[in-house]
Amino acid sequence: MTNLIKRKKAETRFQLYGIFAVSLSLLFVLTLIVNIFSSGVGGFYKTSFLMEIYFDQKLLKLEDSPSSEQIEDASFRKLISHNFKENFSQYSKDEIKQIKKLFYRKIDKETQSYLLKNPEYLNQKVELLFTASTDIDQIHKGNFNRNIPEKQRSINNFQLGIYDQFIETGKVKKVFNKRYFTSGDSRDPESAGVASSVMGSVFTILICFLLSFPIAIFASIYLEEFAKSGKVTDLIEININNLAAVPSIIFGLLGLGILLNFFGLPRSTSLVGGMVLSFMTLPTIIVACRSSLRAVPPSIREGALALGATKNQVVFHHVLPLAMPGTLTGTIIGLARAVGETAPLLMIGMVAFIMNVPNTPLEPAVGMPAQIYLWSESAERGFIEKTSSAIILLLIFLIVVNFVSVYFRKKYEKKW
Amino acid sequence: MFYPVLFLLLLSIVGFYLNKNKSVYLSKNQKLASLPAYYGYLAFLYIFVPAIIIWLGLLIGKSFILQNYLILTLGDSLSIMNSDEINLFMSKVKNLSLGISFGNETDLEKFAAEKIISFDKIFSLLTYLVLTLSSILAFLIARKKVIPNFKSQRTVEKIVNRFIQICSLIAILITLGIFLSLVFETLNFFSYVNPLHFLFGLNWSPNKAFVIDSAETIDKDILRDAFGIIPLLGGTLLIAFLAMIVAIPLGLMSAIYLAEYAPKKIRDFSKPVIEILAGIPTVVYGFFAALVVAPKIVIFGKSMGFEVSSESALAAGLVMGVMIIPFVSSLSDDVINAVPQSLRDGSYALGATKSETIIKVILPSALPGIIGSFLLAISRAIGETMIVVMAASLQANLTINPLEPATTITTQIVTALTGDTEFDNPKTLVAFALGLTLFFITLFLNYFALKIVKKYREIYD
After folding, report:
1. Nearest of A194, A207, A203, A204 to residue A355 by alpha carbon
2. Where are the domains of chain A?
3. Interchain contact A17–B (C-beta under 8 A)
4. pTM passes above 0.80
């Protein structure tokens, strides 16, 4: 009897292990996503201060109704320091300097762009929003503890006092960070954006798709429909299986050794990045395409053959279109994996500091994951938030892509 | 760069329609051997295929021709330089011709850059000319084939079949490319460092190779114990082992629970959610390991009285383990499901409980497949790059203590090749030797894993 109880207990215990394992795995997913999202959502917003600015024509050395070129040429430094002196007249020179540090370093450029957009501001006093410096931004979002000793933080007590004053007078605003989506990388977290890396990823994936998709389809057709079993075919099969398991960084070495050093293709470009990723994506697409070709029932082939179609017509007119949904699903999954791939791109130099949004695949570029890597290596606190935000964008993109592929499969896949 | 291809496509499409129209016209009076469209396809292929090969040849040969052209025009001034200086000169001049100037160019370089610009213009003009000529020639040949008893369909299909056959060879080409690029540079590396010192050396400090930059002759004794792979291998295996400690129990138990116990609802929910872990880019895991897990481990270790490095192998290993969970669980799930129901029924009939059946019947009979999945998971862990690049240390450290920093093969490949890469230095070249080692290790593991899985499948099929 005791034996039976023991066995029963062992049974429950074993089940509990299983439940524990599953729930722990689910917990990991939850932790990861919650952690990234909670620390990254703030990156889409930025802290800004309301401040009155008097656009003094004389300080800017501008004529009446200046052209936009003239405004672009004008220096706004003097105007800014004059306005700070006016607005904070009760403070000493040194203190004003410290107050200025609460704002983004390039406040003069910001003022300039305001005037460029609204030339009528000239000789007027307007209250405008100015980006706060990244240190204050992090304190305002609660990412940085302001109660630690003064020496350990970049914002001193006087500056915090001013910041509290701003809050009391309602001058601190949290606004949507449009710049994050429109500008490229920057040395300053305040103005760094994902636009250049998004474009880099788009070009890379486009090249990857254009190369791998047709080649994979043709290769699968040949292997599945035409190839006679023999040594060459076996060799191809073995190679496809092996390529699927080769670590991604090896493909990067291939790109560096062959594409860059031997063929002399331009370094750091999305062209080379796309080519390297297409080597990795090929096996995935080939496997998907072959299994959907295999799933097309022989009756289709026989019917077409009976009507007098040649072998090529059977394959290209009948079998391939029917195998397309499955192939596309596999392609989307393969490309989604390629989007998130970083290691091979490090090898071919796609980890550069890119400020400009690339216009062609032949310009130096970084991809989204490489941008995440670059920012996460940065010591500045503000970049950590930017990194999380970029990860959120990447994850959202991957989730959408996965839903699309599931939708495709559900909608077009036929069960024979 | 790609305009010639578009240009060719345009020409080919024009050829297609010209030929098709002619055959449509012909077919009004007499019966053709093939459908009119096939005469069009014939023209398209005749024009496009040779021309694109010519274009590729020109593209590859361009830099070679350019170099010789420059040497011809600037002959005297270049003849005093050695090959290194010529390479430097060439890259500087090429940058200048692209408009990238550093303001310190000599007149000779400026002159050469202008030559390059004019050469580019002439070359692209020449490319278009050659492509047009070859297209016209090809079109004329295709045009002659538009006669009633020419079986153009057969020719077109032959060309297409040949083409897709070549496409299928690309997998071999890629493997060959990987192998050649790795082997070539590795041999280059071995000209500096004795392979035995590389494979069995216990010291890894590639920065020693910096000494070469200043000294004229290479002191092989310095390199002797600078490039030992053993500490890297040790670190790699340590981190992979830690990852397996997380991934194997969790992945296997999840697979067992979901396959044998879980109600359908839980199974349908949990499986895809766990699969999410496999879809997350590795750079995200790296970020998580470096900025969330590692600091937590340091704090936790301190509270327990341990000295933990902020780049400990533990952080990288744990996070990598989480990444591999779905890999283990989905592969094990497949094997467990492949065990025939009759084995389960037999065990239940003998009075065994469910857990006894699983432990004593299902797992032993699924064992080869499960071990195969473990081997695949280990190979994945060894080749994983981003997590270790971001979370593990750069300093080689031969240790089995997971709280100490450790570095891996992949980390060192990345460190060697990011930043300035000069291919005449063992410090850079070692990356390829490491890559080759990694390639062989993973190849070996995968080969064995697949063989085991295959053998097992044959038993129950």
Report:
1. A194
2. 46-175, 195-412
3. yes
4. yes
